[in-house]
Design a protein that fits this description.
The protein contains twelve helices and 14 strands. It is an alpha/beta fold and about 350 residues long.
């Protein structure tokens, strides 16, 4: 047995084939193994019944195939499910299943924690623990699809769980390629939305990707001063640069960039904010998704009233901007936007972390 066994669940098909060949196995076994792992969510080599018993034993001696383990599965009254998944190093992440919106949607994480520290987001309070590997990002989707009976049915993916996808660029894009593979779940990039705080070099790279997901940009403010206060990376990548990258972003016919805007009462939800937002988006094929704040302990902002949300939305609509208000799903199980935080990351219990946040 080799000292460190390669984890086959982290490899794109071509690399998996190479890894097998390098250890003297037939290349065509790669497809079989990839399909077991990524199409059927079977990672135990012993259960791969189209490989001979002897072959399974030899492969098991040379390789591993890691998969996230479900350690909690909470169900909201609205049907949303939040899965806590444990990774190989016992770190934990959260992934959310949101049914009927109108499609089935998986909200997946790209990092353990997050380095962006947006002022209204609980995950940001954790700090960044580490990047997820491509295998872990793909593993979440596979495990969610299996747990919800959707391995053979279409679903959407939003990269809106824990983490900033463009801060873990390579692993995120590798994961999208693995999900897209016809030997895996064949997820069309049109069904995937990548949500970012607006890391400009990442946006420029993304603009050249052959496999292009839908883009959502978390704007949340209309002046640099206010945005820097709420979304600290704005200091490095200010509004004008983000909007310029958006203007240059290649869009397919009829597709638009979504701009997310968290509404914080009396912070960024005035009529002037709404008009300024409409002005900023002038000339961009945009739609706006308003997200009334999901409050949480330690978050020093309030959710505006429905009337204030409606007024903000109306001003945008009057300026001919397509606008939607995100329903917050799964708030009773802390599965809504900005509420994902898990114990284990910092070595403290959830209760200890909460206590820290409340100080
Ligand atoms: N890092 C990515 C994904 C974040 S989660 C990004 O910044 O886009 C998806 C959305 O939820 C983001 O727009 C994020 O700003 C928003 N969000 C974070 N905390 C929130 C909260 N407490 N209430 C409502 N939305 C929140």
């Amino acid at each position: 047995m080799s000292l460190s066994r390669t984890n086959l669940a982290d490899l794109e098909l071509a690399d998996l084939e190479k890894a097998l060949e390098a250890r003297g196995f037939d290349r065509f076994r790669g497809r079989q193994i990839y399909r077991w792992i990524h199409k059927r969510n079977v990672t135990d080599f012993n259960l791969m019944t189209d490989l001979s018993q002897a072959l399974r034993v030899r492969i098991d001696a040379e390789f591993t195939s890691e998969t996230p383990r479900i350690v909690a599965d909470d169900r909201s009254v609205d049907g949303t499910r939040k899965l806590v998944l444990e990774l190989g190093d016992t770190r934990r992440i959260e992934s959310v299943f949101i049914p009927d919106t109108p499609a089935m949607t998986f909200c997946v994480s790209t990092q353990v924690g997050c380095a962006m520290s947006c002022g209204f987001c609980l995950t940001g309070k954790m700090g960044l623990v580490r990047n997820l590997t491509a295998g872990e990002i793909v593993g979440q989707v596979r495990v969610l699809a299996s747990a919800t009976g959707l391995l053979e049915r279409p679903f959407n993916i939003v990269l809106m769980g824990m983490g900033e996808p463009l801060h873990n660029y390579d692993n995120t894009m590798k994961a999208l390629r693995m999900l897209h593979s016809e030997h895996g779940l064949s997820v069309s990039p049109r069904r995937i939305t990548l949500s970012t705080v607006g890391i400009v070099p990442g946006l420029e790279r993304l603009a050249r990707e052959p496999l292009m997901p839908n883009l959502a940009v978390s704007l949340h403010a209309t002046t640099d001063e206010q945005r820097t206060a709420l979304v600290p990376p704005n200091r490095k990548y200010p509004l004008a640069e983000i909007l310029k990258a958006c203007r240059q972003f290649p869009l397919k016919k009829r597709s638009r960039i979504t701009f997310e805007y968290v509404l914080l009462e009396e912070v960024n939800d005035s009529a002037e904010d709404a008009s300024r937002l409409a002005g900023l988006l002038n000339g961009i094929k945009a739609k706006v998704n308003l997200i009334p704040l999901n409050p949480a302990p330690g978050i020093p902002y309030r959710r505006p009233s429905d009337e204030r949300v409606d007024r903000f939305a109306q001003i945008l609509a009057d300026r001919h901007i397509t606008v939607s208000v995100r329903k917050s799903r799964g708030r009773d199980i802390r599965a809504a936007c900005g509420q994902l935080i898990v114990e284990g990351g910092t070595g403290k219990s959830a209760a200890q972390q909460m206590a820290l946040l409340m100080r």
